[in-house]
Amino acid sequence: MAELGVVLDEKRRLKKGAWSAEEDQKLTAYIKRHGIWNWSRMAEPAGLRRSGKSCRLRWMNYLRPNLRHGNFTKEEVETIIKLHEFLGNKWSAIASKLDGRTDNEVKNYWNTRLKKQFKGKSMQKPRKSEAARVCDSVDANHESSSQEEAGSSTPTSTPVQLSNLGDFTGIQTSSPENFGSLSSNQAIGVLGDKGNSFDNNLCSSYVDDEVQSYLWAQNFSVEDAHMVQDVGALFMDSTATVLYPGWPLEMASSASLEDFAVNLWEN
DNA sequence: AAATACTACAACCGCGCTTTA
DNA sequence: ATAAAGCGCGGTTGTAGTATT
Fold first, then answer.
1. What is the CATH number of the domain that holds A17?
2. Looking at the C1' of nucleotide C9, which residue has the nearest alpha carbon?
3. Proximity of residue A64 CB to strand B below 7 A
4. What are phi and psi of A249, to 5 degrees?
5. pLDDT of residue A258
6. Residue A222 included in any domain
7. Positions of strand C less than 7 angstroms from a protein CB
8. How many domains does chain A have?
9. Same domain, yes or no, for A201 and A266?
10. For residues A233 and A89, what is the distance between their CA atoms, to the nearest angstrom?
């Protein structure tokens, strides 16, 4: 009998369940030495009786460098709420905007903590006209940082966190000039880790056409697997009425997401 | 102190998309 | 052109830890 909570796939003699420290060490050491080349074939030479899928999951969600574990900050909570509002359950897309967080972590956080806050409460969808105005806005932070770094025509890509979510300003008008030089496929296909890019399924059913247009029109970088440039700007509409659960209607227009997140975070 | 309920999170599964042969 | 393999995503489940009765 295997250790508690751990079973073996009798056919393939693959181990399932919780990872031991030794397994973690083996996987980490192997990847450090050889890199990631083929998940399903790496397990054996790494000395692991695990499926490639299991190895990948463990690495992506736990062992990967620069991951942050532990409590979400107020800002991260704000970001999750706001992004979820527009993207729905696109956990990888949401996670890509949070430095060092995984889709699994974001999903778990939503399902265990935030979901119940929103359960049964309607999140009012922004009107189309409002969404349209949002489409071309650019996160001021992204703008300035890319200008600083760039000085070239190549879109730069620094992992950027949404900030100033309470300050829904800086909306600009959309224009064809903002279409990137990359095709949407180029822009969205990302070198290395496509999992961190937006894909064709990005837009959930309640993302407005205009928002989708925005996504396809942006200058996405191909240099950074983690980046989807300026999507945060999508969510900076100061006028979109969003009803946060537990908040009276009359507060909807005046209260910021930040207020809501603070309230949520502190309780 | 024990039993039960609840919460948080790691991990698995199935599906769909992309890449490769 | 197509089948197979590989990969990533989102949904779900299992379990350990904590709170409550």
1. 1.10.10.60
2. A92
3. no
4. -50, -40
5. 63
6. yes
7. 5-12, 14-16
8. 2
9. yes
10. 19
Q: What is the pTM of this model?
A: 0.59
Same domain, A106 and A52: no
Q: What is the pLDDT at residue A263?
A: 60
Angle at A227 between CA A222 and CA A231, to 5 degrees: 115
Q: How many Å apart are CA A251 and CA A241, to the nearest integer?
A: 10
Q: How far is the CA of A248 from the C1' of C7 (A)?
A: 45
Q: What is the pLDDT of residues A147-177, one digit of tens each?
A: 333 333 333 333 333 333 333 322 233 333 3
Same domain, A52 and A140: no
Tens digits of residue pLDDT in A62-84: 888 888 888 888 888 888 888 88
Q: Give, in Å, how far the C1' of C2 lies from the CA of A134.
A: 43
In a domain, A3, yes or no: no
Length of chain A in terms of residues written:
267
pLDDT one-digit tens code per residue, A99-137: 888 888 888 888 877 776 665 454 444 333 333 333 333
Domain carrying residue A35: 8-63
| Strand C nearby residues, CB < 7 A | A 4-5, 17, 37-41, 52-53, 56, 89-93, 103-104, 107-108, 111, 193-197, 199, 201
Among the listed residues A217, A260, A235, the one whose alpha carbon sits nearest the alpha carbon of residue A88? A235
Q: How far is the CA of A104 from the C1' of B11 (A)?
A: 10
Task: For residue A121, tell me if it sits in a domain.
Answer: yes
